[in-house]
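Support case: user asked for a sample of complex input and structure output to validate their parser. Sending the pair below.
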Amino acid sequence: MALAERILQGDIRAAARLMRDVDDGFSSALPELKALYPYTGKAYLIGITGPPGAGKSTLTDQITASFRKRKKRVGIVAVDPTSPFTGGAILGDRIRMNRHADDEGVFIRSLATRGALGGISRSTGEVVNIMDAMGMDIVIIETVGVGQDEIDIVRMAHTTAVVMVPGLGDDIQAIKAGILEIADVFVVNKADREGADRTARELSMMIEMGSRKEGEWLPKVMKTEACRGIGVEELVAEFETHRDFLFASGVMNMFTEDKNSAVFSEMLKERLFKAVYDRLLNNGELNRIVKGMGTRSVDPYSAVEGVLHSSLVHEGSESA
Amino acid sequence: MAERKLRILVGKPGLDGHDRGAKVVARAFRDAGLEVIYTGLHQTPEQIVSAAIQEDVDCIGLSILSGAHNTLLPRVCDLLKEKKADDISVFCGGVIPEDDIPGLKKAGLKEVFTPGTSTEDIVAWVKANVG
């Protein structure tokens, strides 16, 4: 039986294997993903992002426990960095959440970034889709520890929580561009620490400074102590408020359309590039161009134009 | 064709709190280019097996210094069989008396590493015997 069919019947091993096939770039995964696609789009996706050590995994663990109390099935995708030197990775997010491992209503998958720079792995979207098709009501995506600019999560998750901790910087940090612009909810975790109130106040001020149109979502700043579960129920309630807002305001439709468009163009970009590049590699053209650039007899601008022209003509003549 | 990336789960079953060895070995696997799912301390056999299945690992490396190896390690192997996942190989490292090793291997452990083993040897064994 094909993996997709087994997944739809609730086979955990089949799901885990397909996730791996996707992560490893196996072309055999494509027909399975095609078969699962009609069964996706039902799960609510929550993104948890923030700097390393902010408590994202512990918070994810507590949020999961809260959703389990409400009888929701929860998928978790936890991303940790790949070593740029060895290609290896230590995926340690499970340490904080493995108490859910033998709960059949929870499925946790750790992913390594494998060179992707946006805070999640290239396979994250597909792994989320597989969990969606498995019937998870909620999928929580925990990014790698991010700095300022890794914001791929915002395109993927319906609700994005940015987790901060006291003591990371002054109020100028809070008005810079980047991850602080993508939050639907701000979380000041480790709220028992000195400076937590100040961090929360600075974030609130930053939010108030922004110009917002009538009817736009206004992110709240929530305080939590994830390791003791304090503030978690309130946070989950805020996720639900945001979800209700997305549906009631019609923003959900726009979000979904933008996301689908981004997914399609990314996939097209990747496949087109690979098709063209592989041809150049195999017919020796790539080598000729690079050598030519070395002697300045070829410039990259004309070379790309040439490739584009011949590829489009090539594609055209093939279909004609 | 794309290549399979080796994935391994490293964890500590039971109640002993000494995780330095597990961390050193996890780090050695990382440096050898493997993806290491590190579950940390105080894991039940059930948690270890569920995690291994969800993560689709090639093998499970368990560190145990508590003396409970004859109880916990065969239980992991039995659970894997129960869940039809005994294609995932299990090895262990720790303070394990010579006399216990044959019994553990009979229970399904593929290898038992005792104190003094170099990380190079462990990595080499995994690369030769797993995946």
